[in-house]
Amino acid sequence: MSLNQNSLSLKQARRIALSAQGFLPQTGGIKRHSLRRHSDKHFDQLMERIAPLQLDSVNVLDRAHYLTLFARLGAYDKQKVDKVFHTPKHNPRRYFEYWGHEASLMPVELYPAFQWRMERARRGEGVWRSLSRFAREKHEMIETVFSLIAKEGPLSSSQVRQILEPDKPKKAGDWWGWSGTKLAVEYLFWCGRVASAGREKFQRYYDVPERVIPTDILNTPALNEQEACVRLMELSAKAHGVGTEKDFRDYFRLDAKQSKLAMEVLLEEGTIEPVDVQGWKDPAFLYKEAVLPSRANCQTLLAPFDSLIWFRERTERLWGCHYRIEIYVPQPKRVYGYYVLPYLQGDQITARLDLKANRQAGRLQIQASHLEPGAKRDKVLADLIPELRKMAEWQGLQDVEINGQGFISSDHLDHDWS
Question: Do you know which InterPro entries this protein is assigned to (predicted)?
Fold first, then answer.
């Protein structure tokens, strides 16, 4: 149902959030595990709701963007996604990669809304400090790399290095192990002087924007910083349904000053309106077209970089779930595991699983499993086990197995939960 109210219960806020993020078919989401019906149109429809789609290199289960889509679509053909998102020289190009939340895929129509960020990067603002220093000190190298890409692109950073520094070994002190040419390419990408032409085996290929971004988009006047921030905050409010100013701001990594000015505009225009949410201390705001579903029948695992939960403060406010990714935590200090996915059941998070795709053995391995407080084990298992089997099949794995401690046992995997 559409909304016209001044206060929301926590359950209502959760359902609004799930609807806004494309989880619920009854409010415009896509029915999960309907493989034959997934088309480019469905990917476009979903991306219009949730973009930016965060990319991440961790591949212990699968790449983050594949998992984010799986959470909403169920099993789908990843080759279709690769064709749309990653194939160099794919035309007509509908998406571009840039710094949205982190490295992200976004509809190409948003390109003019990020040119202010590119311009700031050229001034050394908003980029990593070490990269800004490199740009000041290595101008000649940067121009050499740009000239090569302009002439020979698309090229990966490793190809650039092989051409320009074929015999030069990496120094032990190189930043993140990056060579000078890699730093130059990253700086050019941040500045928008080169763009991502796609990825192969997750390696980004660079080319000049004129050969990547459609001409009509390049000819569209860039939004100034204030206009862009209003546009991005509006998209963020739409993707949240309901949230705080800080929630909206984090979605596209805007700063507090930019966010405050944009919020004033959105409130004045009636795009958002104040609302009280049960238990929230900070002021909350409701998107004008937010929808409150009467129910939420979700059964899905959420990747750490899923836009529903990537802002951990909001995750804790909505679900009472203190969730942190523990990839960089030493193993003895980890609480839940290395790559932990919360399990969304109905409108609640009822479990967390540390999962690994052991492709050599053909197994989806449960490294650890944790039941959330108040969740009923058998009720969780009845939905979770079939979902794990569907995930394994989608990943091309033959079975699910226990490889650690937790509330799920081998007997549970063997049980018929239908």
Answer: AlkZ-like
